[in-house]
Design brief:
about 400 residues; alpha+beta; four-stranded mixed β-sheet; 16 helices
């Protein structure tokens, strides 16, 4: 057995940052599509405070990319598709064949959340409409809901989502936040439109891709990236090209690193200073975030307001390769409001001011207001630093 490569905790942290695009020169030529290919998956979410999460992901790595340009990069020319990875994610279209294992599993199960009343009739009706009139949203197909709660889907919505799950239909763009469905045979390029890669090869590719995107990872990290099972990782990890490593402070947990990431571990480079979406793949997994950065963070949007500690959509502050604070943003007209800010120390004041200034400019705000920072001295320092711009 090959002896694991020893990595210090700082080596592992820098390796993760470089793999995720936060250390070194940003790939501006690759742009948003380059970020998507590098990460392999960009999570979608309905919450929009500063901006939607899938817009925040390239912004965090590239800087103030125009928001319209971000949307165009994702949703034009069939460069990407939406499917179930870590959650509902934008994925590079090149990965379509590698999710055939998940489409087959859904097909074998026979349903996801809802059961069709007349599967043959309902799916045939959707396919006929898409063939004749597509691409279409579920509303255009005949309505998404029956009129009750959000989960009370219409038969048409259940049918089109089932066809999406099993690969007969694909979503290659959103319009007004609604999925636009099309026939997969029409939207997926011919060279990629096949499901003839077996489960083992699919898993091997996705574990290798997760390892490259994470830089260094435990078994649980690799599984979490595309929501695989631990035993699925075990079955292929030896054949992915990932290198066994032992990371200081990670205990006895087996870990692996991408060989390219290892080769670049000693390189320097500029650290990005930015606010992160809670849905950013750098901090997707809470145990990993604590292990790599010594920073505990969770999304509190679904926590009752009186029990929130850091705010509805608190965005961690990345500066100098570390997580050093949080800001919970909001917007009123052209004012960016930091409803609640927390900082690890006085050294985080200027990075937070820099991150808030950049975020405000990006979303078209010309003023910044700090509403709450419980430490009076840090609050005064941050207000002064923000005003100095």
């Amino acid at each position: 057995m090959t002896k694991p490569v020893a990595l210090s905790a700082d080596d592992a942290r820098r390796t993760a940052l470089r793999a995720q695009g936060f250390l070194g020169a940003p790939d501006r030529r690759g742009g948003v599509r380059g970020v998507l290919r590098r990460l392999g998956a960009v999570q979608l979410d309905t919450i929009s405070v500063l901006a939607r999460s899938h817009e925040l992901i390239p912004y965090a790595r590239l800087g103030a990319v125009g928001r319209a340009a971000v949307e165009d990069a994702y949703w034009t020319e069939n460069h990407a598709f939406e499917y179930w990875s870590h959650a509902a994610c934008i994925l590079p279209i090149e990965e379509w064949p590698h999710f055939s294992f998940r489409r087959r599993a859904r097909r074998a199960r026979g349903h996801r959340w809802h059961v069709l009343q007349d599967a043959d009739r309902s799916t045939a009706a959707v396919l006929d409409r898409l063939k004749t009139d597509g691409p279409l949203t579920s509303t255009e197909l005949g309505g998404a809901k029956n009129g009750g709660p959000w989960w009370d889907w219409s038969e048409t919505k259940i049918a089109v989502e089932w066809l999406l799950d099993t690969g007969e239909v694909v979503c290659t763009r959103r319009r007004g936040w609604k999925r636009v469905y099309d026939l997969a045979e029409r939207a997926v390029p011919d060279a990629l439109f096949h499901d003839d890669i077996d489960d083992t090869e699919c898993l091997r590719r996705l574990v290798a891709q997760a390892g490259a995107a994470l830089g260094v990872a435990t078994r649980a990290d690799l599984a979490d990236y595309h929501r695989l099972k631990g035993e699925q990782v075990d079955s292929v990890v030896a054949d992915t090209g990932l290198v066994p490593v032992q990371v200081e402070g990670w205990g006895a947990k087996p870990a692996w690193a991408d060989p390219t990431a290892l080769a670049e571990a000693s390189r320097g480079g500029r650290h990005r200073t930015t606010l992160l979406s809670p849905f950013d793949s750098l901090i997707w997994d809470r145990p990993r975030t604590e292990r790599v950065f010594g920073f505990t963070h969770r999304l509190e949007a679904y926590v009752p307001k009186p029990r929130r500690i850091h705010g509805y959509f608190a965005m961690p502050l990345l500066a100098g390769g570390r997580l050093v604070g949080r800001a919970d943003p909001a917007r009123e007209g052209t004012t960016l409001i930091a409803r609640q800010v927390s900082l690890e120390s006085a050294r985080a004041v200027e990075p937070m001011a820099q991150a808030l200034r950049e975020a405000a400019t990006w979303v078209g705000c010309d003023d910044i207001r700090i509403e709450r920072l419980d430490d009076p001295e840090l609050a005064a320092a941050l207000t002064t630093a923000v005003a100095a711009s």
